[in-house]
Design the sequence.
DNA sequence: CTTGAACCTATAGCTACTAGAGGGATTATA
DNA sequence: TATAATCCCTCTAGTAGCTATAGGTTCAAG
């Protein structure tokens, strides 16, 4: 049996966040001690690890509820879980592309030895006026 | 002069979001028509495009305020901006690293063609039981 | 048995929006 | 010029996913 603090340490999920997850129904309310403190089992630990990992990957709480429900019926086809992942992958790839472009421009700027920001590559890029016009 | 609706269409920023940006001081309150409706200039359009682009890239509103302030003083020596740029660069690079890791995992997940969830890579991966055990 | 850390609930605040109510302004057409 | 459709206004409240605070209780070590 784990206290909420131990659970927090082992999963890396903060204590108020654990209570929040319980509140919104992402995890079940655990048993309590005589003095009304939460006591978690190994199962609770696994479930929270799953949630932590999913959140890190950017899945919404609703998505995770879906995934958790799915995982409770292992005979069910995984098509649904697959769909959630594919949808998210597309989103992530777009973000990577944009960030790489910005990275290039920021590198330019941080090497900048010009006198002014007048032709600043970052500002240009963010304003979406096309690629950097001046070579720093 | 653009109405808020036209501005919204041209930038892809929703109308309530534009008003929200005004409220939190990210954009200046524009002139109004006789009938008290917002009227934007080309400058307003540029500024909002800049903001849109920056938000897409994951910068917080506070970050963007910084960038905008920077861009308003084009005579400011580059040296002053150097540190800020480097800071943003680091931030961006961290985000790229995280997203690449996420991309790899999601690609893995989305290749799952198992018949049932029992062997589904999504569930395995999210449960953090190590890398995918079966090659799809 | 005491003391200090860890726990409890409840409420409020945070970021970045988004939706709705109830009303006024603008514009295209009859 | 009238009127209907569409746009816009403010204000309030709701959303996700936490995080912080206040004021009190329980647990475990010495």
Sequence:
């Amino acid at each position: 049996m784990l206290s909420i603090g131990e659970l927090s340490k082992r999963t890396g999920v903060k204590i108020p966040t654990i209570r929040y997850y319980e509140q919104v129904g992402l995890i079940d309310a655990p048993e309590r001690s005589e003095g009304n403190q939460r006591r978690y089992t190994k199962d609770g630990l696994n479930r929270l690890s799953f949630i932590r990992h999913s959140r890190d990957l950017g899945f919404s709480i609703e998505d995770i509820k879906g995934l958790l429900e799915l995982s409770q019926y292992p005979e069910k086809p995984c098509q649904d879980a697959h769909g959630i992942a594919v949808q998210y992958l597309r989103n992530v790839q777009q973000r990577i592309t944009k960030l790489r472009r910005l990275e290039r421009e920021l590198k330019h700027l941080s090497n900048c030895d010009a006198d002014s920001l007048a032709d600043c590559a970052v500002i240009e890029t963010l304003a979406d006026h096309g690629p950097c016009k001046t070579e720093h």
Q: What stands out?
A: Residues 3, 14, 16-17, 20, 24, 33-37, 55, 60-62 of chain B lie near DNA strand C (CB under 10 Å from a C1'). Residues 129-136 of chain B have pLDDT under 50 and may be disordered.
